[in-house]
Amino acid sequence: MSKVSSRWYSDRVEREVTLVRWGTVGTPVLTFPTAGGDAEEIERFHLVGACDGLLEEGRIKLYSVDSVNGRALLSGEGDSGRQAWIQCRFFEFLRHEVVPAIRIDCGSDDIEVVAAGCSIGAFNALASICWFPDVFRAAVCMSGTYDLGRFFNGPISADFTLSSALRFVPALDGAELDRLRQRFVVLASGEGANEDIGESWAVAHALGSKGVPNRVDPWGQHWEHDWPLWRAMLPQYLDELA
């Protein structure tokens, strides 16, 4: 399987970042790692391998990027204002650096991307499609943690509100909302240990109240918050969306 890694310094997030791609042709899928993960985490935990069939058939190309915002949060980088600022800058970095790199790699100036992620990666996938429905056409959100406010030590800032889809989607209107209504979000969750499907239902309510197509898929109590669940989920949903 073809694998290519790129690394560069981003002024937007003020650090070096890595983007990795697996596969050669097909629908581009930007897959976010868990909170502190790097761009190759999804390979180490066999999420890439779980998608081998779709990759070999040329239906998808998987991309992944370092969890810059998750790492800043977990490491306690600066105060809550600094961490929220990084959240916003991370999404600007995705739109203006990562998506253009994906489009160059795909040889298309206007190809649309599917966002996917698990745990806090699901937060990033959801925020990406809600911020930028002009470039993301669907999101696969697995076992999501969607309101990160409880992880911040300090007041909730305007930057944090802008980075949290649960907080900014209710205020969307006009052309941005019209475009988002043409997109689709799947919210999948187990109901076993460390899973909270209530977070998915909260997102579904926020999206549904604004007319954004979405679906909550409960996977049952025998699925825990861990990689075996996400390895089962991702190829199933990409088979549906690719």
List keywords for this structure.
242 residues, Rossmann fold, globular
Care to describe what's here?
By secondary structure, the protein is of the alpha/beta class. The chain has a single domain (3-235), classed as Rossmann fold, CATH 3.40.50. Helices cover 43% and strands 21% of the residues. The protein is built from eleven helices and eight strands. An eight-stranded mixed beta sheet has the order 1-2-4-3-5-6-7-8, sandwiched between helices. The longest helix is centred in the middle third of the chain and has 27 residues, at 80-106. It is globular, with a radius of gyration of 16 Å. The model has no long low-confidence stretch (mean pLDDT 91).
CATH topology category name: Rossmann fold
Q: SS-based structural class?
A: alpha/beta
Order of helices and strands: EEEHHHEHHEHEHHHEHEH
Largest sheet: 8 strands, mixed
| Overall structural domain count | 1
* Number of helices, where a helix is a run of at least 4 consecutive DSSP H or I residues: 11
- Cα gyration radius (Å): 16 Å
Beta-strand percentage range: 15-25%
The CATH C-level class name: Alpha Beta
What's the N-to-C terminus distance? 18 Å
Helical content stands at 40-55%
Uncertain runs: none
Brief overview:
The chain is of the alpha/beta class and 242 residues long. The chain has helices at residues 41-44, 47-50, 52-56, 68-75, 80-106, 120-131, 158-163, 165-168, 174-180, 197-208, 227-241, and strands spanning 3-10, 15-22, 27-32, 60-65, 113-118, 136-142, 184-189, 214-218. The protein has one domain (3-235): 3-Layer(aba) Sandwich (Rossmann fold), CATH 3.40.50.
